[in-house]
Design goal:
Layout: E1 2-11, H1 15-32, E2 36-46, E3 49-58, H2 61-68, H3 82-85, E4 94-97, E5 113-116, E6 121-124
Antiparallel strand pairs: 1-3, 1-4, 2-3, 5-6
Length: 125
């Protein structure tokens, strides 16, 4: 399994609207693609900026290539409103091979485990 990492920055005052926009556009589109196993959406506010990460899970690099084209490291911007929200259109994404999958749910007593077996991922906070 492969994780594709996209990063984008918007002004903090646009953060809530951008989150809704991401869910309605990019995340929905990712999830509709063959070979996509799910998407995490993360946000970090730093001063007046909101940083967003989309961590999408894919069956293989080939599945990503069907979605993104032959240059899989190139960021994809499908929606015209991207330019309205984003401070810059970052040109590249990163890919990581997932070496361990969440089979056993080991976590501390004070942590919370969220899982979604249908999409085969979980998150421990």
């Amino acid at each position: 399994m492969i994780m594709r990492v996209w990063h984008g920055i918007t002004r903090n005052e646009k953060g809530e609207d951008f989150h809704k926009y991401l869910m309605e556009t990019g995340v929905k589109y990712y999830r509709s693609q063959q070979g996509n196993r799910g998407v995490f959406v993360l946000r970090r506010v730093q001063n007046d900026k909101a940083h967003f990460l989309l961590l999408s899970l894919w069956d293989s690099l080939e599945a990503i290539a069907k979605f993104a084209g032959s240059d899989i490291d190139k960021a994809m911007y499908f929606f015209p409103e991207d330019q309205i929200f984003l401070e810059e259109m970052e040109p590249n994404v990163l890919h990581y091979e997932i070496l361990g999958e969440p089979g056993l749910k080991k976590h501390h007593e004070d942590s919370v485990c969220f899982d979604d077996l249908e999409n085969d991922y979980f998150l421990i906070l």
